[in-house]
Amino acid sequence: MKHSQTFLATGAATLLAGAARAQEEALSLDDRVNAVFADVTGPYVSFIFMPFPGTDFPWIVMWLVVAATIFTLYFGFVQFRFFGHAIALVKGDYSDPNDAGEVSHFQALATALSGTVGLGNIAGVAVAVGIGGPGATFWMIVAGLLGMASKFTECTLGVKYRNEYPDGTVSGGPMYYMQKGFEELGLPGGRILAVLFAVFCIFGALGGGNMFQANQAHAQIAGIVGDYPGIITGLVFAAVVFAVIVGGIKSIAHVTEKIVPFMGLLYVGAAVIVLIANYDMIGTAFGQIFAGAFTGLGVAGGLVGALIQGFRRAAFSNEAGVGSAAIAHSAVRTNEPITEGFVSLLEPLIDTVVICTMTALVITISGQLITDPETGRFVLDEAGTAIRTVGDTSGVALTSAAFGTAIWWFPYVLAVAVVLFAFSTMISWSYYGLKAWTYLFGEGRKTELTFKVIFCVFTVIGAAASLGPVIDFSDAMIFSMAVVNIFALYFLMKLVKRELESYSSRLRSGKIQRFKAKA
Amino acid sequence: MTVKLVVGLDGQASGERALAHAQHLAGLIGDCELFVIYVIEWSPYSFQTAEENAQRHRRREEEIATATERLVDPAVAKLRTSGLKARGIVRHGDVADTLNRIAREEGAEQIIVARMSEGGFVRRVFGSSTSNLVMGAVVPVTVVA
To answer: Which domains does chain A have, with CATH numbers?
Structure first.
């Protein structure tokens, strides 16, 4: 996810600030909205991101990581056993040529990835490494690998219980598997969970998936061309989003959908170049990552500090367990829902284990994090909460500076990439929100148009205003999706296990065959 | 034994020329069945939005229905009225690969296509469907000028 900043700090600060500002006479519209919103939603936001007593480890992160661990064990390390099979499915080795023209596994994966890869991989990792040190990378990879099992579980169910309509369109996602899956198991409450999930999803889509993205995109553009009113960026973004999701201007979507993967590849390629340019530092960097993972190497909070930051970054970045991917993956045409589960487990791998790790490696290797030459331990800033960096940078600026050490012009490419990533995330989340909306209010052109127009209005608000509490609330909504979704997955995972056992035995016995011969 | 010929349409005048040539050949052969094929260019590795994915099945059905109605059915009807055996097929995929695969599956003796379809840039970079077919086909290919 692209919007996980210091939730607790900002949440608490905005609560206090909101209350104080409410006393003031001359209030701007932003401030008024903030104050009212903070008062109403503050307690809920604080609850969702509440840390365990005596730590700054939010319970929601533990909720996601524990679930990922349980799914990993329950499905017998499915992410490793079926990794090769997942690659074969994406390559189309098991796709019937007569089904050509339907959504392929590759397309479903690429679409879902365009919703998750973004600002979190660039800025969020810099924050995690800046606070937790290079050791955070190790725990981030561990959490990313575990998260693959969560994705597998939710995406299998997403395809299995989607709605297929007579006109050939489909709607799927946690709402549908909660309702139908619980019914199948004879359990009560499926519909209630589904409605709850849909409500959280709508708010999450409008906020974190839309306003926050527009806001960050504006910040990026303003950083390059100089400050100007955010409403301009908002209107331009809203117009383009409107053209894509309402006007059906496919050419824009196609251009974006093509540029975003290209940007992703360019980003990883640039990271590899930086690593090659600093090849003599690779050993040291890995040494710092492993040593930091278990000792902290002097970062705030030591080993626990590194672990918290790593887990947190992975959980926030790949959305495993949130349920959003189940909506994106459910469009694929397959007789075997579990195949989409296998494909989806590649998502946390690409998002977290590859892209986030690349960012972390580049930052570590670039020498931007200042160490004490005598002790080899990191030097902390004055507050003692983060590692001191060359030029006192953090977030996107730290990543940008790290890449800039080897490729001077890359920061400009990075800025463009951030804007494009933000845009593709908005398009993806507009769909997730839409599906939740139509689940609640029914399918139909008017219902859909209503949501799409609301979405575009929120794009303008997001770019134009600095609505901290609103965005914190929408972050809380996205993680509330995870609370409901994982709760439901614990009940439904036995259905996935049934599918897994049936599919594995047919694969072993040769009943399931490749259409393409092995190269 | 019935000789099977595969004819590739492209929705343009060039496809019509291929069809006319196939009809001429079939007349000369006598016992001949023609497979009139239109391939909708499609790649499983293209990028789409989630909404496009959700509507993909419907779009696919619409694309097949349109191509069948406007191109393939009239061509098949024309061949049948002239006393020839003909079948129409519409598929999605890579044009060269799909024509080649159908020819192999149906045991066709020959594939008949016309020259040119894509524009200059695409053809320069990736080669035309026709040249790709000529290079990869498992049966003889006749390219009509």
So the answer is: 7-480+500-509 (1.20.1740.10)
Q: List C-alpha distances in Å: A267 to A109, A275, A403.
A: 19, 12, 10
CA A212 to CA A220: how far, in whole Å? Answer: 12
When CB atoms are compared, the residue of B49, B54, B64 closest to A427 is: B49
- Beta-carbon separation of B48 and A103 below 8 A: yes
For residue B55, which residues of chain A lie inside 8 Å, CB to CB? Answer: 168-169
Record: contact B57-A108, CB cut-off 8 A: no
Q: Do B57 and A427 touch (CB under 8 A)?
A: no
Its sign, for the CA torsion A390, A391, A392, A398, is: negative
* CA Rg value for chain A: 22
Work out the minimum CA distance from B42 to partner chain A, whole angstroms.
6
CATH class assigned to B3-144: alpha beta
Chain centroid to Cα A513, Å, comes to 34
Task: Kindly indicate whether the ipTM for this predicted assembly is greater than 0.95, answering yes or no.
Answer: no
CA separation, residue A14 to residues A52, A203, A385 (Å): 21, 19, 20
Tell whether B48 is within 8 A of chain A (Cβ): yes
Looking at CA atoms only, how far is residue B24 from chain A in angstroms?
30
Give the list of residues 6+ apart from residue A248 with CB closer than 8 angstroms, or none.
Answer: none
Instruction: Tell me if residue B45 falls in helix, strand or coil.
Output: coil
In chain A (519 residues long), the average pLDDT of successive 10-residue segments reads 45 46 54 76 87 83 93 96 95 88 90 84 87 90 95 96 88 95 95 96 91 86 82 91 79 69 85 89 87 76 80 85 92 89 94 91 89 82 82 84 88 85 88 94 91 93 78 84 96 96 94 74
Cβ–Cβ contact B101 with A under 8 A: yes
Question: Given B50, B52, B60, which is nearest A101 (Cβ)?
Answer: B60
- The closest alpha carbon to B128, from B25, B8, B20, B19, belongs to B8
- Of all residues in chain B, the one with the smallest CA distance to A98 is B91
Residue A258: its chain B contacts at CB < 8 A?
A: 47
